[in-house]
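Propose amino acids for all 213 sites.
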């Protein structure tokens, strides 16, 4: 369905507010910038900012939706015969090999993470987003295999798959903050993914294979 004029203008306004806010946060730090200053820079009212972003941290972590459902989306989109873990490993390798900004492999990422590390509010929100990633993955696994609510195995498998994702993201963040070249970090992280796959047991690697009886 084609995007209407009203929807396009709302999307563009939201993006402009987010971009201006991010610029201010990167320059001065998250805690030092007020919503009123962001509204003035974007030439909108404070209420308009809150209409698009319910909390101040949403302005900086404005692409969170694409992150919190990432693992669940990869699992639901797995290929025939592919297990949940295999799908996540495949997608994660593809992002890292492509030196994708979506996993933090980009110039300027160190400043982005520095802003987060300097802000207790953003660090708390980042932790909460990590919990959402795990919860969404757990839900997806349960739906895909038809697990009963009391079954523990989906949660155990979700924890192992999430460990791989969290470790990769943490290593990339650490290395990029150290000023490393994204392509060099990509090559090293691909080796790390192989090593982590070797640590996963057959029960995890074969869980929720699409089409398996």
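Proposal:
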């Amino acid at each position: 369905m084609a995007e209407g004029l009203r929807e396009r203008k709302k999307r563009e306004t939201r993006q402009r507010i987010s971009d201006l806010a991010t610029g201010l946060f990167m320059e001065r730090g998250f805690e030092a910038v007020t919503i009123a200053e962001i509204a003035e820079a974007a030439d909108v009212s404070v209420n308009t900012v809150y209409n698009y972003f319910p909390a101040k941290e949403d302005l900086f972590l404005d692409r969170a939706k694409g992150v919190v459902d990432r693992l669940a989306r990869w699992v639901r989109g797995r290929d025939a015969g592919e297990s949940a873990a295999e799908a996540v490993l495949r997608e994660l390798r593809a992002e890292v090999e492509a030196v994708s900004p979506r996993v933090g492999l980009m110039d300027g990422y160190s400043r982005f993470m520095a802003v987060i590390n300097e802000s207790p509010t953003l660090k708390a929100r980042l932790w909460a987003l990590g919990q959402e990633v795990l919860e969404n993955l757990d839900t997806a696994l349960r739906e895909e295999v038809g697990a009963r609510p009391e079954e523990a195995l989906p949660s155990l498998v979700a924890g192992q798959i999430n460990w791989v994702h969290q470790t990769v993201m943490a290593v990339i963040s650490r290395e990029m903050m150290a000023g490393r070249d994204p392509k060099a970090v990509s090559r090293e992280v691909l080796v790390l993914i192989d090593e982590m796959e070797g640590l996963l047991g057959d029960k995890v690697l074969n869980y929720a294979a699409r089409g398996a009886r």
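The longest helix spans residues 120-145. Residues 198 and 205 are 10 Å apart (CA to CA).
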